[in-house]
Design brief:
Elements lengths: L1 E4 L10 E10 L2 E9 L5 E10 L3 H13 L4
Length: about 70
């Protein structure tokens, strides 16, 4: 995962995240995303290669995250 902050990211306003799949290679997915403020200013960009989880793996990940207090 590569992450580049372009401007300071405020914590007290609504932000928009947009992401898209660049390339789907079966279990591997290349994706990119950007974070923008209300005036559409680019605050951060990210891109990376993600591993697609099976339904069973996704369920286990979700259960573990909830056990750690994630919403």
């Amino acid at each position: 995962l590569e992450l580049s902050f372009r401007k300071p990211v405020p914590t007290d306003e609504t932000l928009t995240v947009r992401g898209r799949v660049i390339r789907d290679r079966g279990r591997l997915i290349e994706a990119e995303a950007e974070l923008r403020d209300a005036s559409d200013t680019l605050l951060a960009q990210a891109k990376g290669v993600m591993l697609r989880a099976s339904a069973e793996q996704a369920k286990l990940i979700e259960e573990q995250a909830r056990a750690l207090g994630a919403p």
